[in-house]
Specification:
Keywords: Signal. It comes from Blastomonas fulva. This protein has six helices and no strands. The protein has 125 residues and is mainly alpha-helical. The protein has one domain. The longest helix is centred in the middle third of the chain and has 27 residues.
Length: 125
């Protein structure tokens, strides 16, 4: 097999395997946070930290989109966070929340856990 064909096949397999991965659970996210924390300064270079950052950005983007859709629809909203860039969420707050979840809730998707955290942190009044 030529190099170009081999590269195309590998790229296709990598693409398909990425698409087939399931959503990270709250427990997996917490375990990855703990692992990254244990690495100390080396965590900045870790692929695990990049994966954590990508997952949290993906879920926060979904969250912001959902809250914006609810606001435009004029109905009840899930939660009422401050405008983007004005609210600060510390990783330690999220870690504390995830650590306190019962074992059954740690099996839920990280997305669900984050939405619940945001509802608790930014309730609509």
């Amino acid at each position: 097999m030529t190099w170009a064909i081999r590269s195309a096949v590998l790229a296709s397999v990598a693409f398909l395997s990425i698409g087939a991965t399931s959503e990270m659970t709250a427990g997996q996210f917490l375990a990855a946070m703990n692992k990254a924390e244990s690495l100390g300064p080396a965590a900045l270079m870790s692929s695990d930290v990049r994966a954590l950052r990508a997952e949290s950005e993906r879920v926060l983007t979904l969250y912001r989109s959902d809250v914006a859709k609810q606001a435009r629809a004029g109905g009840p909203r899930h939660s009422c966070p401050p405008p983007k860039g004005q609210g600060k969420m510390k990783g330690e707050e999220l870690k504390t929340y995830l650590t306190g979840l019962p074992a059954a809730k740690k099996k839920q998707p990280f997305r669900t856990a984050l939405y619940d955290f945001m509802k608790q942190k930014y309730p609509c009044r």
